[in-house]
C-alpha cells in the first residue's frame, strides 16, 4: 500500500539545454496473463526477446492488440481486499535497447523519467533494478547516470495492470494499462538546475509583479524583457497573467552549467471576504472537467490532440479546466499557460468503489495509506508548481473523507500557500479553502448563494460546482439557470461541466462504450458524457455552453441595444461589433456598431442603428468578434451575439374553408386525399404520405433514462411508446373533414382525445388538432405533436425559425432566428448512444423537398420539427448509431412541444418550467404541396 520505491525526490517538470534523449517509440513487448506466468529473467541484458511483439510507447497495450479495455464507473472490477489484487493480473514486459547520442556527458548523473505508467512498473537498466513506480498519472524519476554506457543500454519495465495503487485510482474511466506517457533520459549535470520554485505574483494596486525563486543558491533567473538579470528576486511593473490575457514573459532559470527556459505569468490568487479573486478581481469559472482521451490511443494523448482541446475550449468560451481526476500530461499545462485557461490541478486519487461498502476500509482514513496519499500530492504539486495557469490544487475525487486527505491538504498549503486547496469530498470543509459540490440542483446553489447554509464554516467560503450539467447524450438542459446563479451571488463562482469529451473508443465501425469489449462488469455508456464527441466534434451541448457562457451579453429592444461585459479582467478593446438586419430571414442591411470603451464588468446602452422599413419579421443580429487574430482564433471569430426583435411578421392570409369534401373511395379535400376508414391523409398533391397522427413518444435520452425515478420509466409504464389509436368518427362536414380519435396505451384507462379538423382553400390544406386528456395522466409527456411519413426522396430541408442547430426547451440559447437549409441526414446529431435528437425549434415554415417538389408546412405561428430516415422506435431500439438503417420513408415529427432535457443522468431533472404535461391543447398547421 506504499508509494513506489527507488525514485528521486519529485521536482518541477522542465526541459533545459542539458542533454536529453526521448525513449518513446517501438519497444519489445510481451503480455502474460498473470505475474506468475510472466517470463523469468527479462531484466537480464542477454534475455532473448526476439520472439516478442513490438508496442508503441507511449501507449496502452489494450489498444494495441493485447487484451481489451474495460469500463467501470464506481465499482472496482476486482474483489475489495486492499492491498491485494487478483492473481490474474495482466503483466506487460517492455524492453528497449538504446544507444546514447554522441556527446552525451557520460560522467554526469542522469535521470530516467517516466511521465506515466498504469498502474505499476518495475524498472531495470542494464540488469540493475531501479525501483518500482506507482501512481499512474504521476511522474517517477530514477538516477541512472552510473549505469549508462554509450551503446546497447537495455531498459526493461515490467508493468502490472493491477497493484495496490489501483485502489487509489478508481476514476470513472476505462481501465487501460501500460507506459502511456513519455519516457525520457535526462542528463542532470552537477551544478545544474536541479529544481526550482518560481513565485510570480501581481499586486493589482501598484501594478508591480513580484518575482522570486526558491532553489539552490547558485540558481538565478533572467528575464530580459523585464530587465531582470541574474537575480533571485525582483519587483517590476508588469502586465498580469490571466486566462483572458495570458501574458507570459520569457526568461531563463540558470546556473553556470544549465539553462532552463521559463515562461512567467504574474498573477495572485486570493480569497477575500469569501470570494476567490485573481489579481484583485472576482472570477467566474466557466469550466469543464477534462479527462485525457483519444478515441484510438486512450490516455496516451498526443500533444496536437491536447492543443486541439485547448483551441476548442478557447473558441467556445471555456475559461477553466479541472484536470479530472489526475494531473494531465505536463504539456497540457504549458498550453493552458500559453493560451489562457484557469486550471484546478487534481491529484491522481479516487477510491469511489469503497462507497459501495459504506466506505468501510476506505484508504482515505487508514494510516497505512498516509504515505501513499502524501506521495501523490507531493508529486502533483512539485511537478506543476511553476504554472501560472494552475490556480488551485485539488486533492482528488470521490475518496470520501479522512485524515490522509487532511494531511495532503495541510502539506499542500504549507508547501504552496499561494494556491487554495480544493476537494469536494470534504463536505464539512474542515481542510479545504473552497466549498465545492457536484451536481447540486439549482435550488441548492441558490441557498448557498443566499448564505443560508447551516454549516458556519461553509457560509464563509467561496463556492464552486466542481461538476455540474452532466453532458451525457442529448443535453445538458438548464445551463442558463446555473449561469444566472453565478451572476446573482458573488461567492458562487461558476463551475465545471461534467465533462469535456465522450470516452468512446473506435471499434467495429462505431464508438465503443462499456460492455462492448465483453466486460462482465461494466457501466455501459456512462462513459459517453462529454461536450465533444470522441473525435472532438463539438456536440450541441458545447455550442450551447459557448452561448450561455459568452463573456459579452447583447440584448435590447427596438430602440436600444444593451452591451454587457462579463469579462473578469480584460476590456472590450479586442472586439469589434457588427450588425445585420434580416427580414423574414433575408438580409436587408448591415453595418458596424460603435461600442464605447468598456472595462471588465461594465455595460452600455446604445442606439439601434437606422434600419430600412421592410414588411416582414425583422431581426437585428449584433455580433462581437475578434478584431484581430489571437493565438487561438482568427480575426472575425464570433465571441458573442444577440438578437433583437425589431418588426413583427406580416399577417399571413389564413386558410378559409372553401373547398368541399369529395366523397368516394377516398375522401378528398383541396390538395389532400384521406382514407375514409382511418381518416388519415394518404396523399397531398403528387406525394403519397401516411399520417399525420398524434405522437407523444420520443426515443428516451440519457437524461430521460437517468436518475432513480427516470422519466422514461414513467413514460413506458404509461405505455406512451405503444399508444393505440381508436377512430371514433370520420365525419364529413360540408367544408371540413373531422376525424375524432382516442389515443391511449394498452391495459390502462387514461388516454387523449385527439380531434383533427381539416379544411382547405385552393392549394392549401389546414389541420387543427385539438387534444384533451381523458382521465388522470400519471406522468409528463415526452412530446406533443404529429408524425407523418413522407416519400424517401424528400431530403432537402429549408425553414425559417430557430437554427441552425438542434434546440430543446431548456437548451436553446445557441439558436437564432433565421432562414436555414439542410438535409434530413445533416439534421441528425449522431449521439454515440442513439437517442432523441435533431429537433429544430420555432419554425414559422418548413419545406421538405427534392428538386423543388415536396411539401411546405406553415405554423400558427410556430412549430418544432424533427425529420429522419428511421422511426422513433428504431432510434429507441438502437444501441449504436450504425445500427440505424434508412427506411423507405422520411419520418417527420411536427411538434407543439417537447419535454425539456434536464441533466438527470447525473443531477437535477427537467426544471418545472420546462416540463410538458398532458393538458388541453390546440395546434394548427397548414400543408401546401410544392410541385
Ligand atoms: C461523479 C464523478 O466525480 C465523476 O468522475 C463522474 O463519474 C460523474 O460522477 C458521473 O459521470 S461522482 C457521482 C457520485 C456524482
From TrEMBL:
Keywords: Glycosidase, Hydrolase. It holds the Pfam family LacZ_4. One of its GO terms (molecular function) is hydrolase activity. It is an enzyme of class 3 (hydrolase). The keyword Cell membrane does not apply. Belongs to the glycosyl hydrolase 2 family. This is Beta-galactosidase. It comes from Lentzea roselyniae.
Amino acid at each position: 500500500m506504499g508509494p513506489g520505491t527507488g525514485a528521486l525526490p519529485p521536482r518541477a517538470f522542465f526541459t533545459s539545454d542539458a542533454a536529453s534523449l526521448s525513449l518513446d517509440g517501438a519497444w519489445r513487448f510481451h503480455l502474460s496473463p498473470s505475474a506468475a506466468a510472466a517470463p523469468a529473467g527479462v531484466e537480464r541484458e542477454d534475455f532473448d526477446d526476439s520472439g516478442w511483439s513490438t508496442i508503441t510507447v507511449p501507449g496502452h497495450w489494450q489498444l494495441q492488440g493485447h487484451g481489451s479495455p474495460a469500463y467501470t464507473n464506481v465499482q472496482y472490477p476486482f474483489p475489495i481486499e486492499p492491498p491485494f489484487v487478483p492473481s490474474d493480473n495482466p503483466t506487460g514486459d517492455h524492453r528497449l535497447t538504446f544507444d546514447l547520442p554522441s556527446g552525451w556527458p557520460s560522467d554526469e548523473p542522469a535521470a530516467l523519467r517516466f511521465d506515466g505508467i498504469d498502474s505499476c512498473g518495475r524498472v531495470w537498466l542494464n540488469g540493475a533494478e531501479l525501483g518500482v513506480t506507482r501512481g499512474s498519472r504521476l511522474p517517477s524519476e530514477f538516477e541512472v547516470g552510473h549505469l549508462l554506457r554509450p551503446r546497447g543500454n537495455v531498459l526493461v519495465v515490467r508493468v502490472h495492470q493491477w497493484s495496490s495503487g489501483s485502489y487509489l485510482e478508481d476514476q470513472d474511466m476505462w481501465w487501460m494499462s501500460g507506459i502511456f506517457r513519455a519516457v525520457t533520459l535526462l542528463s542532470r549535470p552537477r551544478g545544474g538546475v536541479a529544481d526550482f520554485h518560481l513565485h510570480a505574483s501581481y499586486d493589482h494596486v501598484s501594478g508591480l509583479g513580484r518575482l522570486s525563486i526558491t532553489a539552490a543558491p547558485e540558481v538565478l533567473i533572467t528575464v530580459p524583457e523585464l530587465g531582470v538579470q541574474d537575480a533571485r528576486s525582483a519587483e517590476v511593473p508588469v502586465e498580469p497573467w490571466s486566462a483572458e490575457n495570458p501574458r507570459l514573459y520569457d526568461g531563463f532559470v540558470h546556473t553556470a552549467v544549465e539553462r532552463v527556459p521559463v515562461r512567467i505569468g504574474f498573477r495572485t490568487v486570493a480569497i477575500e471576504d469569501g470570494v476567490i479573486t485573481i489579481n484583485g478581481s472576482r472570477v467566474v469559472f466557466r469550466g469543464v472537467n477534462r479527462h485525457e482521451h483519444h478515441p484510438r490511443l486512450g490516455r496516451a494523448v498526443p500533444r496536437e490532440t491536447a492543443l486541439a482541446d485547448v483551441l476548442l475550449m478557447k473558441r467556445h468560451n471555456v475559461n477553466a479546466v479541472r484536470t479530472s481526476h489526475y494531473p494531465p500530461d505536463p504539456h497540457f499545462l504549458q498550453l493552458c499557460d500559453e493560451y489562457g485557461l484557469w486550471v484546478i490541478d487534481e491529484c491522481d486519487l479516487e477510491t469511489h468503489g469503497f462507497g459501495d461498502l459504506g466506505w468501510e476500509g476506505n484508504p482515505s482514513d487508514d494510516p497505512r495509506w498516509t504515505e501513499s496519499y502524501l506521495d501523490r500530492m507531493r508529486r502533483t504539486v512539485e511537478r506543476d508548481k511553476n504554472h501560472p495557469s494552475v490556480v488551485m490544487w485539488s486533492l482528488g475525487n470521490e475518496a470520501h473523507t479522512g485524515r490522509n486527505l487532511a494531511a495532503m491538504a495541510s502539506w499542500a498549503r504549507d508547501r504552496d500557500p499561494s494556491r487554495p486547496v480544493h476537494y469536494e469530498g470534504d463536505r464539512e470543509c474542515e481542510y479545504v479553502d473552497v466549498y465545492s459540490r457536484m451536481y447540486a440542483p439549482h435550488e441548492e446553489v441558490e441557498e448557498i448563494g443566499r448564505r443560508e447554509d447551516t454549516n458556519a464554516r461553509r457560509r464563509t467560503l467561496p463556492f464552486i460546482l466542481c461538476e455540474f450539467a452532466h453532458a451525457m447524450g442529448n443535453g445538458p438542459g438548464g445551463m442558463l439557470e446555473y449561469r444566472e446563479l453565478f451572476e446573482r451571488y458573488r461567492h458562487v463562482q461558476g463551475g465545471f461541466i461534467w465533462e469535456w469529451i465522450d470516452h468512446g473508443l473506435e471499434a467495429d465501425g462505431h464508438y465503443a462504450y462499456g460492455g462492448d469489449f465483453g466486460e462482465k462488469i461494466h457501466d455501459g455508456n456512462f462513459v459517453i458524457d462529454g461536450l465533444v464527441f470522441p473525435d472532438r466534434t463539438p456536440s450541441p451541448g458545447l455550442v450551447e455552453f459557448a452561448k450561455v457562457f459568452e463573456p459579452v451579453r447583447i440584448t435590447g429592444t427596438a430602440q436600444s441595444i444593451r452591451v454587457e461585459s462579463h469579462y473578469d479582467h480584460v476590456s472590450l478593446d479586442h472586439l469589434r461589433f457588427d450588425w445585420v438586419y434580416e427580414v423574414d430571414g433575408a438580409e436587408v442591411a448591415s453595418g458596424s456598431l460603435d461600442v464605447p470603451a468598456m472595462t471588465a464588468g461594465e455595460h452600455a446602452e446604445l442606439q439601434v442603428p437606422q434600419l430600412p422599413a421592410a414588411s416582414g419579421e425583422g431581426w437585428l443580429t449584433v455580433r462581437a468578434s475578434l478584431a484581430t487574430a489571437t493565438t487561438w482564433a482568427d480575426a472575425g471569430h464570433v465571441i458573442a451575439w444577440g438578437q433583437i426583435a425589431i418588426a413583427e411578421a406580416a399577417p399571413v392570409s389564413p386558410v378559409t374553408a372553401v373547398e368541399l369534401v369529395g366523397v368516394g373511395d377516398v375522401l378528398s379535400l383541396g390538395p389532400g386525399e384521406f382514407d375514409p376508414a382511418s381518416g388519415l391523409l394518404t396523399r397531398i398533391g403528387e406525394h403519397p404520405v401516411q399520417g399525420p397522427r398524434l405522437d407523444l413518444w420520443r426515443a428516451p435520452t440519457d437524461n430521460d433514462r437517468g436518475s432513480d425515478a427516470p422519466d422514461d420509466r414513467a413514460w413506458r409504464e404509461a405505455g406512451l411508446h405503444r399508444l393505440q389509436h381508436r377512430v371514433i368518427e370520420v365525419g364529413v362536414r360540408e367544408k371540413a373533414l373531422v376525424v375524432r380519435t382516442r389515443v391511449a396505451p394498452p391495459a390502462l384507462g387514461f388516454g387523449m382525445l385527439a380531434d383533427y379538423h381539416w379544411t382547405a382553400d385552393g392549394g392549401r390544406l389546414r389541420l387543427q388538432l385539438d387534444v384533451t386528456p381523458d382521465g388522470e395522466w400519471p406522468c409528463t409527456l415526452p412530446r406533443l405533436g404529429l408524425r407523418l411519413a413522407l416519400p424517401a426522396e424528400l431530403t432537402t430541408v429549408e425553414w425559417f425559425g430557430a437554427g441552425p442547430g438542434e434546440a430543446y426547451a431548456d437548451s436553446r440559447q445557441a439558436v437564432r432566428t433565421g432562414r436555414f437549409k439542410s438535409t434530413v441526414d445533416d439534421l441528425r446529431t449522431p449521439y454515440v448512444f442513439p437517442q432523441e435528437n435533431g429537433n429544430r425549434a420555432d419554425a414559422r415554415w418548413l419545406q421538405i423537398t427534392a428538386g423543388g417538389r415536396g411539401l411546405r408546412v406553415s405554423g400558427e405561428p410556430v412549430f418544432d420539427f424533427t425529420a429522419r430516415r428511421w422511426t422513433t422506435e428504431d432510434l429507441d431500439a438502437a444501441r449504436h448509431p450504425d445500427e440505424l438503417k434508412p427506411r423507405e420513408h422520411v419520418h417527420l415529427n411536427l411538434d407543439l412541444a417537447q419535454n425539456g432535457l434536464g441533466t438527470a443522468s447525473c443531477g437535477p431533472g427537467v426544471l418545472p418550467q420546462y416540463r410538458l404535461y398532458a393538458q388541453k391543447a390546440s395546434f394548427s398547421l397548414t400543408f401546401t404541396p410544392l410541385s
